Amino acid sequence: MVKLNGKKKLNVCIFISGRGTNLKSIIDFSKEKESPIKIDLVITNNKNAKGINFAKKNNIKYIYINYKNVDKAEDKIIIILKKHNIDFICLAGFMKILSNKIINIYKNKILNIHPSLLPRYKGLNTHKRVIKNKEKFTGCTVHLVNEKLDSGKIILQKKVRILKKDSEISLSKKVLKIENKIYPKAIKKFVNSNL
Ligand code: GRF
Predict the structure, then answer these.
(1) Interval between CA 26 and ligand 1 midpoint (Å)
(2) Counting CB atoms within 10 angstroms of each CB, which of 43, 91, 100, 120 has the fewest?
(3) Which SS3 state, helix, strand or coil, does residue 79 take?
């Protein structure tokens, strides 16, 4: 649970590995006057992540973490998060699985966005699989992170219709647009809720 408890803004750290459209949408949200969050930090495991540019443009500090040794990487991350007084974490296209060590320290304080209607289609290549299975709907989900992959409590979910003409690419574009919309909404819902 995260609460403002008199604080003006909650300190958020966003984890990315790539493009960063969800990071961008959360940055835009953080700039709204009534937004309950301040993005204090961006962490990436990929030096070349395009999303880093959104951090740079907005004067948000970003830190690259070398993940060659996962244990050491996570120890570093924990020290950094504590130093920055991070209230909660948003995973936004972060392609590493966090171990229980971090998850337990930030219990119910880590959000993730996943491109499917969880609990269906956990894991990778969701769009490819829904098309292969001739599903009529897919969608995206913002959920809390727990020890099991893509299995934590659902905060917000939105359905997207799959058309006959949809390909993996067209569908991923459609879903991504919705992802970018729901992540800020999910954060709003999460802050000061009893989740
Ligand atoms: C999104 O589809 C998200 O659901 C998944 O990774 C992708 C990240 O996209 N976890 P972006 O880097 O935010 O543009």
Answers:
(1) 12
(2) 100
(3) helix
| Atom 10 of ligand 1, nearest CA residue | 93
Q: Which of 84, 114, 127, 143 is catalytic?
A: 114
CB 161 within 8 A of CB 139: no
Sign of the Cα torsion 148, 146, 154, 33 reads negative
Residue with tokens 């948003």: 90
pTM value?
A: 0.97
**Is 117 within 8 Å of 182 (Cβ atoms)?**
no
Which amino acid residue places its CA nearest to atom 14 of ligand 1? Answer: 21
Which domains occur in the chain, in start order? 2-194 (3.40.50.170)
At 127-143, the pLDDT tens digits run 999 999 999 999 999 99
Residues 53-112: pLDDT tens digits?
A: 999 999 999 999 999 999 999 999 999 999 999 999 999 999 999 999 999 999 999 999
Tokens of 188: 């709003």
